[in-house]
C-alpha cells in the first residue's frame, strides 16, 4: 500500500477562551474583580460615580477604601446605573490568603478546586448576585466577579494548567491521556463532559481491565483553537480539524501520549490521524466516540465502516483490521469472520460489528487483541 497519511473520520459518533475585555456592573452594590491592575479613579470615570471602592482586609477584619484595583482581589462598588468596564493585561499570579474570610477575584475562568493549592477551604467560593441581592455558591470562578473564600490557614492560590482526573503513577510507565477543552465558556460543563467520557472509556474492554495502566488529565482553561467541520459529511456526521495548534504549548506542563481536543459544538463528529497523537471530538458526539478515535490513534486501527462507495486500488497490507477477501490475517481466530466492507468496498473486516465500525458495540477480537498487546507495554 502507498505510504500516504490518512485522515480518519468517524461516523455515527458521534472556548483561547477569548476572555472578554469588558465586564458589566449593575445598579446597586456590585462585588467585582479585574484580572489586571487598574486605578480606582479610572473605574469611577468609566462608571460616572464618585463612590469609593471597598475591599475587605482579612487581617484587620474590616473594609478599607481602595485607590487601586489589584488582580486577584474582590471589591465592592455601588452604582446608580449600569456600567461597562474595560481591562487589558492579565496576570496569572494570585495573592496570598489569610486565615478567615478573604475577598478574592478570578484571573481566568477555572474550577476553584484546581487552584486552591495548600489552602484548607472552610467555606466558599460565594459570588454576590446584584440582581437578587443574594450570595450564590460557585465552584467555577470567572473574571469580573468577586468571591468570598474562608480558609483555615495562611496560604496561596496556585493556578495549575494540568489537572489529574485519574492518576495511577509515573507517566513513563502509563498510557497518558490528555483532554483539552475547546470553545467552552463554562468549564463546569467541560468537567461534566470529561467525567462522562472517562467513565465510558474505562467501562469498555480492553481499557476496563487495564485501567490502572492509564492516567487521565485535563487542561484547566478553554480556548478557541479554530476547530471546525472538515467539509466531510459521512452520513449525518462530520470530521473536525483545528487550525490553531497553540495548545501544544500546554504539553510542556502535562504529560501526554494521546491528546483529545473536546470541541463544544453541536455537530457530531470526530477526527484523528492513524497512529497520531492528537484527536478532535465534538462534545455532542457519542460517548464512545473517544474510544473509537483512540482505536485509531493508539491502536492504529482502521475504520471498519464503508466510507466510500468504490473499491481501492491499494491492498490493505499494513492495515491490522482490514484484509483482502481471503481474510487470512485472522484465520482461525475465534469470533471472527470475513465481512465485506472495511473503509473501502473491496476490503474485508473481521466482524459484522465493532467499535471501529460505528462505535455502537465493543471491539471485535482482532481490534481487542491489538490494543491489549499495546497496553501490555505499560505497568
Radius of gyration: 26 Å
> How would you characterize the largest beta sheet?
7 strands, mixed
Number of helices: 5
CATH H-level homologous superfamily name of the largest domain = Collagenase (Catalytic Domain)
Strand ordering within the main sheet = 1-24-25-23-19-20-18
User: Which class of the largest domain in CATH terms?
Assistant: Alpha Beta
Question: Which quaternary structure do these chains form?
Answer: single chain
Strand content: 25-35%
Number of strands: 27
* Tally of domains: 2
State the separation between the terminal residues, measured CA to CA: 34 Å
- Helix fraction, binned, reads 10-25%
CATH architectural type of the largest domain:
3-Layer(aba) Sandwich
The geometry reads as: elongated
Quickly describe the structure.
The protein is mainly beta and 379 residues long. The chain has helices at 40-47, 187-201, 289-297, 355-358, 365-375, and strands at 7-9, 22-25, 28-32, 38-39, 53-57, 62-66, 68-69, 75-79, 83-86, 96-97, 100-105, 110-111, 121-129, 134-137, 140-141, 146-151, 155-156, 162-166, 175-182, 214-219, 227-234, 237-242, 258-263, 270-273, 278-282, 339-342, 344-349.
